[in-house]
Structure formats: structure tokens, C-alpha cells
Write a structure and sequence with these properties.
β6 and β7 form a beta hairpin. The chain contains 11 helices and 11 strands. 46% of the residues lie in helices and 17% in strands. By secondary structure, the protein is an alpha/beta fold. The strands form 3 sheets. A 6-stranded parallel β-sheet has the order 1-11-10-4-9-5. The protein has a 3-stranded antiparallel β-sheet with strand order 6-7-8. A two-stranded antiparallel sheet has the order 2-3. The protein has helices spanning 24-49, 79-82, 101-112, 119-132, 141-149, 177-187, 190-204, 216-220, 234-247, 254-270, 292-305; strands at residues 6-8, 51-54, 60-65, 90-94, 115-118, 152-157, 160-165, 168-169, 209-213, 226-231, 283-286. The chain has one domain: P-loop containing nucleotide triphosphate hydrolases (Rossmann fold), CATH 3.40.50.300.
Length: 309
Amino acid sequence: MSAAPSRLGGSSLPILPSAGVRSEERDSRALRSRRRRDSGSSTKAQRSKGVTFDRPGGEGCPLSSVLCRPVAKRRLSSVRSRGTDPNPLVVAIDGPAAAGKSTTARAVAKRLDLTWIDTGAMYRAVTLWLLRHGIAPVEGSELKKALDEIRIELSSCGEEQRVLLCGEDVTSQVRDVEVTRQVSRIARLPQVRDALVTWQRQMASQGRVVMEGRDIGTVVCPDAPVKVFLMASLQERAERRTQELIGNGHRTEHGRIEDELQRRDTVDSTREHSPLRAADDAVVLDTTSLTFEEQVQKVIDLVREKGYR
């Protein structure tokens, strides 16, 4: 019998030899030097653009990622070049919309010097692309072609994460009201989830990540050593989302937000593919009456209880 989830808390110019140098030997040295420099520049440029993860079967996955954090100067690179951690620290944070997953995950990652991965932003980026191109949220060849064309890049610097979609910074756009309304319909499509989950698993295999979403502990990283399911009352979540939207310059009403959250809860928890639920071994953390500092500290305590520092 599975254990019940536990609960806590209420470009460069060529390098030329000097004008006085005529000997073939000096020219040759200059050429070798130029090649070395060009090679180094190429490597740096490649790293700054991120990498392409391989899909099963060897086909390049179009979803690339760079997560750079100035303090630790850590980057996600190819799994084959860096290898995988046999016992990676993965903090999986799941929960419904507006439960505080992103703010909590970001704070925990900063304090423990981990890489923060917002999987929800990935689904929002796909949703934004499909909306812009008028592609219906249905399985088929059109959706597959779209997924083959999409490029998503996540860049985390300090506490801020930027989302690039095919080279365009769409950090604000992925939080637009229409994207929020449609993302659940897109996220429940198996073609979309299969593409993103494969990428997310490769990212997690690097270890020392805080990954948040709706199916991290149950589907993406079922073996994560630390699993947290954040929740809060519908009213509290609606108030948080309302204040977030107002702070971003959107006009909205609390009642409307509450209705949308309730609808999204239903869609997320009843979808056939990777429904929203707490993993059997997750710690359920109710944040309704907790301060932000309290909920962050409780997650950090759970990480340390597992022997990680």
C-alpha cells in the first residue's frame, strides 16, 4: 500500500601578422594563433547560446536551455559531455496555480545555491507560440511541426528568470491573461508533455536543481529525494494571483480570477495525461496561513533533513 503524503503547515576581425614580418615561420605561427583564438571564440559563443539536448533515437531536440547563475557560474550543458549524477539532488515542487511554487522555488534555489527550473514557463512559451500562429490545441501533424520549430531558452540570473522564445524575450508575454487561460488546454496534450518531459528529465539529471511544476514528483522526477506539494485555499490563491496581475499592469477582478483558478484546478487534476496530484511520498505544505519566509524555510529544512547542504 502506498504511503499517504505527509503534510506540513497550516562576431571578430582577423588577427594579422605585423607589417615587418615576412618569414614563413612567423606567418605560420600567427595563423596557428588566429585559429586558436577563433576556436576559443566559437566555443564561448556556443556556450552562450546553450545546447541542444538529444531526443531518444538521436534526433536533436529543438528545446534548448541555458541557465546561468553569476554567483556559481553553473550552466546546463549536454548530458553526454558532463555525464549524469548517480544521486542527483532534485527538489521537486508541485502544486496548483498560484500556490507560490515559483516564488518559493526561486528563493530555495538562491539560498541553497541550486539551479531553478520553472517548467510552467516552458508550457506557457509553447502556448504563446501556438496562439500567435493560430494553431489549434489538438494532437496531429500540425502540432508536431510546431514543436519541431519552437526554441525555448531559460536564463536564470540571480532571482530573475528570462524566457526566450525563438530568440525573443517573452518573459512578460508568457504571463498574459490569454496565455494563462489557454495553457492548461495546451499542457494536457500528450505530444506537448512528451516533448517537454524528455527535456526536463535531462535537465534534472545534472543534479542540484529545484524544479517546479505540476507533475515533477509524479512523472518527471519520480525518484527525486525531496518532493513538496504546495497548496493554499482557493481564496488565498485568487488574492495572490490578483495582486500579481495588478502589479504587472493588468486590470482584473478577484472573483473572475477565483473562477478561472477553480476551472484550471479541475482541468489539471482530471486530465488523462499526467494529472495534477501529490506524489505518494511528497510532503504536502499548506501555505494559506504561512508567511513567505516560513514556507521557504520549511522546504529548506526538508532538503537538509535528507542530508543535503
